Amino acid sequence: MRIFSDIVPRLSRLTETHSNLRDVGNLRLGLVGCGAIAQWHAQALQHASRTQVTACIDVSQTNAQKLADLTGGQPCASIDEALAIGVDALAIMVPHHLHEELVTQALEAGVHVALEKPMAPTLDACERILATAARHSDRVFMLTENAQYWPEVVMAQQLIADGAIGDIVTARSWHNFGITKEFYPSDDSWRFQQAAAGGGVALDTGSHWMRPLRMILGEIDEVVGVTGRLWQKMEGESLVRSLCRFQSGVVASFDVILATGAVGLQPHFQFTGTKGEIVISALGEVRLFDGKEWQGTVVGNGNYMDSYQGVWKDFEAAILDGTPLAADARYSLGEVAAANAIIRSAETKRWEKVW
């Protein structure tokens, strides 16, 4: 596919060093791919005080201009144009099957990279990307899984670490959402295509609901699941119902559905412990059930979209201050491995090891 074949033609001219960037004190960022998710990131970048979007790069002039109007960056048809403007880092937000090629080119050219999830559709491709990043360890390579910074999840994680509900007994992760024009603009959207997306909802949207389980419960040992295709035009699965057994022995449910109709506001997450429960609602409410009030106590409210602000604050701090990322890029392989294991389980109809 040529959809982004000329986005990164020659990155080798980018030569600014990490130390020089710290002296300047401001991160010049180029956005590669100006589709729907780039719009969300652009909104969050308005709160990143030390990052300036200088280039918006897309083969679609309309998309590039739309993002440029939002960010103040200059629309570009290629990375060559962005180089003339000046960029220190690239945010790569393109279809999944293009990640390996573009990340490799960017890292070898000497720029920092923030890559949208998943790192790649297969673990082999992920390992090749990580090997390239290791050869260029003076550059920051970040996987932008925003759920790592999801305010409600971070609240729940701290409450559980403080012993608010005792030892975890089980948990539930649930996401039911419908087709949106911004992410599925037409019947030939790349997210419907197996070759471009690498799978369905388990690998794509599901990662946002898998990461919080891993943050709080640890690593997954094995999974068992079923999948379905509610949308015939989507080559990958649009329904996942599964159980995940963690290395601790705790079992949690993980369900993701790309719905064909209206959906109800079921809780996103439910964590059950020996002393109580924590429930995270679809509207951002964190409610603690510890026996004091039968309806529980609201201990905080968050906003999913604020998690994107966390992504960019972490990225700029890693580059400008040298602080470690909240989660290194390799950690994201847990979502890819779990999604792939769920797909295998649906085929074999038995528990499958994640690793």
What attributes does this structure have?
2 domains; disordered N terminus; 11 helices; Dihydrodipicolinate Reductase, domain 2; 355 residues; Rossmann fold; six-stranded parallel sheet; alpha/beta
Characterization of the model:
The structure is a single chain. The protein has 355 residues and is of the alpha/beta class. The chain has two domains: 18-144, Rossmann fold; 148-303 and 328-353, Dihydrodipicolinate Reductase, domain 2 (2-Layer Sandwich), CATH 3.30.360.10. It has eleven helices and 15 strands. The chain has helices at residues 18-24, 36-45, 61-71, 79-85, 99-109, 123-135, 151-161, 194-197, 207-217, 307-320, 333-348; strands at residues 27-32, 51-57, 74-76, 89-92, 112-115, 141-143, 168-178, 220-228, 239-246, 251-259, 269-273, 277-280, 285-289, 297-301, 352-353. The strands form two sheets. It has a nine-stranded mixed β-sheet. The chain has a six-stranded parallel β-sheet with strand order 3-2-1-4-5-6, with helices on both faces. Strand 9 (239-246) and strand 10 form a beta hairpin. Helix 2 crosses helix 10 (307-320), helix 5 packs parallel to helix 6 and helix 9 packs across helix 11. The longest helix has 16 residues, at 333-348. It starts with 17 loop residues before the first helix and ends with a strand.
Task: Please outline what is shown here.
The protein is an alpha/beta fold. The protein is built from 11 helices and 15 strands. 32% of the residues lie in helices and 24% in strands.
Kindly give the count of domains.
2
CA-based gyration radius: 20 Å
Major β-sheet profile: 9 strands, mixed
CATH fold label of the largest domain: Dihydrodipicolinate Reductase, domain 2
Shape: globular
The SSE order reads HEHEHEHEHEHEHEHHEEEEEEEHHE
Give the strand order of the largest sheet, numbering strands 1, 2, ... along the chain.
14-13-12-11-7-10-9-8-15
Q: Kindly report how far apart the N and C termini lie.
A: 31 Å
By CATH, the architecture of the largest domain is named 2-Layer Sandwich
Q: Could you state the CATH homologous superfamily of the largest domain?
A: Dihydrodipicolinate Reductase, domain 2
Helix share, percent: 25-40%
Q: Which CATH C-level class of the largest domain is it?
A: Alpha Beta
Q: If helices are DSSP runs of H or I spanning 4 or more residues, what is the number of helices?
A: 11
Average pLDDT, rounded to a whole number, is 92
Are there runs of 5+ residues with pLDDT below 50, and where? Answer: 1-24
Portion of residues in beta strands equals 15-25%
Secondary structure: number of strands: 15
